[in-house]
């Protein structure tokens, strides 16, 4: 599988994150279908000209998000679509929550206040039709 | 053989005006290590010690499991060494060099050599002295790469190269790493390249190893934190703060060991948190280490 | 001699092939000129002598000093050898480079003496001593090149060795018992001859083996 991922040196985000996002996008768009084998860590590292540990970390993150599964000795594969959508949504939620957490921290907001605000947000949510 | 590619332990080498002191570094097989340091820090000395061209006053050196400099003839069979102050034999052609190297190393891959020749835009029939510095460097790297060595030791391999040649070279280096039994140690001023392809990074300054860690650790540990302290700066005694820049109420902290816990202990509201580039981490590390050395008697 | 040493010796012979050919040709031209009469003899002799001395100096300078300066030393040291192997291979290689033309030109000179009726055969012992002296000279210059890294130092060594050739020729030619029989019709191989020959051989061996104990054993090569 020839990877067409692209790492930008001027992108402020760390390289492993760029890899994670691009793979996530391709999986979500269906370009990389469920069950497809991912390039080996070393092969991808060589293709992208980034260090092996960067790719390793990206794959670890993707696995913990459930986007890919790694079978020991066999390689990494795109995870089943079923668990995927759910896991991806959960990952999205976690991303938003940690962003909220960072803003709260930077405002030195105590935890109970943050939770209160979340509760308000949930209560004022328009229920989706 | 699961020996480490490189093992240096407590190496010391004294010269008249410079001493390399207590240098230790490790490189596992299948990894790339970037050696970063200012001019005169001791990068080239460290590499020469590694290659057996200098004998240490103290400490031990093992290259691919072989003790150096005693077993260097054996070790160098599997090592490709290129240094930026190395040159080919001026009167001979590149073709002669290729034949010469091919006859010495059984691992010579003629097809790969031909490929590199084309990729680097070199002509085998040229005499070494007619090559420009950039072409010399590429020729030397060709001779090292085509032998498919288990370890590549490179002292400023891309210095003086144009960006296109540099990218080509980085591609070849990463290609080497497709085989997880092969490793690379390279020293470079180009922190962007080092940051991109290294698995481990070692900082050297004034003859000492100032830091040696996985690249991720460096990138994750260091941040610059900007905040406003209109009531004046609190008496922070946080060891993670390596440097502070104060401009009235605006304070910029350079932090080594960033964590949520640190932010909590900081207490003050933070405006921005930035990751740092390897170059910034390097400069901060070196400055901090120099200050620390001055304080010590 | 292992494969790598052989290849390095072959490399020296290859790199300096034109120098060897040139020196050989010049020396041979000198021999031919020497065969053409008394004035020709004097001129030819000087050309022959210069060719051999110059060959030695060029080999020592280019073969050792400039390789060090030109940074190609680093390239050779990156090969699978210890620095001691490098010194040994250099020594053997440059010696081989010198020996080939020197042997040819020495035999040529001795043959000239025997063949030419106008040149007394009594010159033979003196000529043998001179040829071996030139070899000894080269050994000294080579030994010096492997130890001295300053250009001024090397310059000094070259000047001294050149002076020594003149001193030798005068010394042996005028004062010794070998010189006394230079013009006789048959060669006289007396005790003084054998003594001088033995001394020259001994010094040559000494000069060639010294680097094996000093330069080859150096712990710091750069």
Ordered list of secondary-structure elements with their pairings:
The complex is a heterotrimer of chains A (about 130), B (about 300) and C (about 220).
Chain A: H1 15-29, H2 41-48, H3 52-65, E1 68-71, E2 75-78, H4 81-106, H5 111-124
Antiparallel strand pairs in A: 1-2
Chain B: E1 6-14, E2 19-27, E3 32-36, H1 43-50, E4 58-63, E5 66-67, H2 72-75, E6 79-83, H3 94-104, H4 110-119, H5 133-145, E7 151-155, H6 163-176, E8 183-187, H7 191-197, E9 200-205, E10 208-214, H8 215-221, E11 222-228, E12 241-247, E13 250-256, H9 260-266, E14 270-275, H10 278-295
Parallel strand pairs in B: 3-8, 3-9, 6-7, 7-8
Antiparallel strand pairs in B: 1-2, 1-4, 4-5, 9-10, 11-13, 11-14, 12-13
Chain C: H1 3-15, H2 17-34, H3 38-69, H4 72-77, H5 83-115, H6 123-147, H7 151-175, H8 177-180, H9 191-213
Helix pairs in contact in C: 1-5, 2-3, 2-5, 3-5, 3-6, 3-7, 5-6, 6-7, 6-9
**What letter string, H or E per element, gives the SSE order of chain B?**
EEEHEEHEHHHEHEHEEHEEEHEH
Strand order of the largest sheet of chain B: 6-7-8-3-9-10
Task: Domain count of chain B, please report it.
Answer: 2
What structural category arises from helix and sheet content of chain C? Answer: mainly alpha
Give the low-pLDDT segments of chain B. Answer: none
**What would you call the shape of chain C?**
elongated
**What's the tally of helices of chain B?**
10
Distance between the termini of chain C: 25 Å
Structural class of chain B: alpha/beta
How large is the radius of gyration of chain B? 22 Å
Strand content of chain C: under 5%
The shape of chain B is: elongated
Level-2 CATH architecture of the largest domain in chain B: 3-Layer(aba) Sandwich
Quickly count the helices of chain C. Answer: 9
- Whole-number radius of gyration of chain C? 19 Å
How many independent structural domains of chain C? 1
Multimeric state: heterotrimer
What distance separates the N and C termini of chain B? 44 Å
What would CATH call the class of the largest domain in chain B?
Alpha Beta
Characterization of the model:
The complex is a heterotrimer of chains A (129), B (297) and C (222). By secondary structure, chain A is mainly α. Chain A has 5 helices and 2 strands, in the order H-H-H-E-E-H-H. Chain A has a two-stranded antiparallel ribbon. In chain A, helix 1 (15-29) packs across helix 3 (52-65) and helix 2 packs across helix 3 (52-65). The N and C termini of chain A lie far apart (41 Å). By secondary structure, chain B is an alpha/beta fold. Chain B has 2 domains: 6-206, P-loop containing nucleotide triphosphate hydrolases (Rossmann fold, 3-Layer(aba) Sandwich); 218-295, no CATH class. Chain B has 10 helices and 14 strands. Chain C has one domain (3-217). Helix content of chain C is 81%, strand content 0%. Chain C has helices spanning 3-15, 17-34, 38-69, 72-77, 83-115, 123-147, 151-175, 177-180, 191-213. The radius of gyration of chain C is 19 Å and the shape is elongated. Chain C starts with a helix and ends in a 9-residue tail after the last helix. The mean pLDDT of chain C is 89. The interface between B and C is medium-sized, with 32 and 24 residues.
